Amino acid sequence: xxxNIKLLSWFNFFTDFKLYSPxxxxxxxxxxxxxxxxxxxxxxxxxASAFFEVPTGVLSDYVGRKRTVSFGxxxxxxxxxxxxxxxxxxxxxxxxxxxxxxxxxxxxxxxALLHDSLYEKGEVRHYEEYLGRISxxxxxxxxxxxxxxxxxxxxxxxxxxxxSVIPQAICFILSFFLIEPNVRSKESANIFIHLKxxxxxxxxxxxxxxxxxxxxxxxxxxxxxxxxxxxxxxxVWPIWAIGISKxxxxxxxxxxxxxxxxxxxxxxxxxxxxxxxxYNRIVTIIAVVYPTVFxxxxxxxxxxxxxxxxxxxxxxxxxxxxxxxxxxMGSLNAFAGNVVFGVFAYFLGYIxxxxxxxxxxxxxxxxxxxxxxxxxxxxxxxxx
Length: 384
Fold this sequence. Notes:
Growth Hormone, Chain: A; mainly alpha; single chain
């Protein structure tokens, strides 16, 4: 299973080696003609992901983690091609649907693949450490590609998009070399019974419900704001420099992921989540209320908490999930997050069109304050 861990590391790297990542909203807005329509591509991708989320999660529990990864990688190649073709809104829309499909194949499944691989080796106790190191590869890829992509974007957005197809093709090739863990349960051949079991675990487990709600809000607001940041950055920095802020952000997140295992051995998971939420709100609000050339750097510093908070959250989820429905439960959580993201992303662009990118980001920071209260509820529940 050590082979799976190495392959997952490289798979994660090439999955997020996206040269277009720092300028994606600018590219979408250029093609569609507005921030709202540009953000709607993100919305459609996430809503499509939500639509496919539960079926692909159940599929993973039945046909295996390896095949599901291959399905996701093939879908990623298709969405990258449609994004590169661009030109018209409906072509981007098709790309968004394939991106949603790819995300749904990966969601729940890839974490379950890592967990099952470690379980088979008898090393599941090291899950947080391995998850942090493997996830850091996402951020390293994004850091490198952000700088290269923003420089190339000065000459051609189209070239940036076409080069980004290559890493997704590499992922598709890598998926065939993964090894299927032999720890899955197939106690029920009825998909509906399988799904019902996963849903009932959320219904009966209060801590799981609180984790799910906080995760949904954090993901929907955090991700939509992150995708939109370039629209704010371009107000204080030139396009070529946007990659620098993204580089700082991804490097910070990479270190945060890499050392998350060590950090979580010293500090309680929920306390780190509370600290992360407070820091992110305060720093981002200051950066947008008093916009200067330092604002992008200040906002990038929130990434120092991103990796460790993601691993902490994931670890808390995995401890509450059940083995035979692990991927399905992960997909249910992602389903809710993607639906809410789909609504919030378009709403963020709509506010920016009416007022300004600055006001849109500020409003969303205020909207995310209930996350801190939800984390506090989980903390109090743990103490009981």
